[in-house]
Amino acid sequence: MPPQTPPSDRLPILTAALAPLTHASTALNEFGDELAIAMPAERALTVYADKQELVTLMTLGAHPELLVLGYLRNQRLVGSVHDVESVSVDWGVGAAAARTRNGIADLQEKTARRTITSGCGQGSVFGDLMDDLERICLPQSPQPHFSQSTLYGVVNAIRLKESTYKSAGSVHACALFRGQELLQFVEDVGRHNAMDTIAGWMWMNRIEPALDLCFYTTGRLTSEMVIKSAQMGVPVVVSRSGITQMGLQVAEQLGMCTVGRATNKHFLCYSGRSRLHLQPQLASRTVRPVEAA
Asked: Edge-to-edge strand order for the sheet containing 181-188?
């Protein structure tokens, strides 16, 4: 009889509830012509943990099980992937049921306080955003470990990626890189959903914190995005957009490298400059005005 994996080492059992990512429709252009178009799907997913309703997420539905798993992780409701026994999604009723192995301690207390975030659709997080911030330890190195050439490779990989955004628009994208290697790419109607989905994927694939990990997002770097990246053990975050004052404050406290306005060969490094190996000879000489965050 083959040896049994102890429950403490088992990964959750996930369903594979696929859903169409786009919806066919029509629209009039500026000439009055009716055109066939594709638009991103948006559907409600109500999340339950051990039969208790937590939240309803508006999502594209690309990887709903990973979204739920990452949501539990980034909301700090479970401390390990092994705490979750299963995640089952049923689009027929628009619900996701997460079952933990030993329950969630103090669930009522943890979910009693909500902070409304700047996320698309007014997202929320449980508890205080700054709780346990001092406990987060990002991988450290005495030498710069993220080069300008790697940054350009990340931006170019996103540019070349086939995506729902290119065919339908109106979605945010997030991606996880190891160096210039694209590990995972996720799109959703909100950047926080895309980020949580990658967090769930990291848990399922046992991706540990590392110096060579980089997180990319098309959305702005708010305090919540920075904190979630840090909780995932990713020391470098790159955005096509800018950063908020509180996002910068948190990033500086955590020692995280944050890079914004990253398009083509332009970028702004806001924090964690000691992590960035500059190679100005690679930069474009085209002057681009600095925009507000």
From this structure: 181-188, 172-178, 213-217, 236-239, 257-263, 266-271
Largest CA distance in the chain: 71
- Tens-place pLDDT, residues 13-39: 999 998 998 889 899 888 989 999 888
Q: Output the 3-class SS for 248-281.
A: HHHHHHHCCEEEEEEECCEEEEEECHHHEECCHH
Q: What is the pTM of this model?
A: 0.87
Angle, CA of 189, 194 and 200, to the nearest 5°: 145
- Concatenate the DSSP letters of all residues of the chain into one string: -PPPPPGGGPPPEE------SEEEEEEE-TTS-EEEEEEE--EEEEEEETTEEEEEEEE--SSHHHHHHHHHHHTTS-S-GGGEEEEEEETTTTEEEEEESS--TTHHHHTT-EEE-SSTT--EEES-TTTTGGG------SS--EEHHHHHHHHHHHHH---HHHHH---EEEEEEETTEEEEEEEESSHHHHHHHHHHHHHHTT----TTEEEEESS-B-HHHHHHHHHTT--EEEESS-B-HHHHHHHHHHT-EEEEEEETTEEEEEE-GGGEE--GGGS-----PPPP-
121 neighbors 191 (Cβ within 8 angstroms)? no
Chain segment 43-85, per-residue pLDDT in tens: 999 999 999 999 999 999 999 999 999 999 999 999 999 999 9
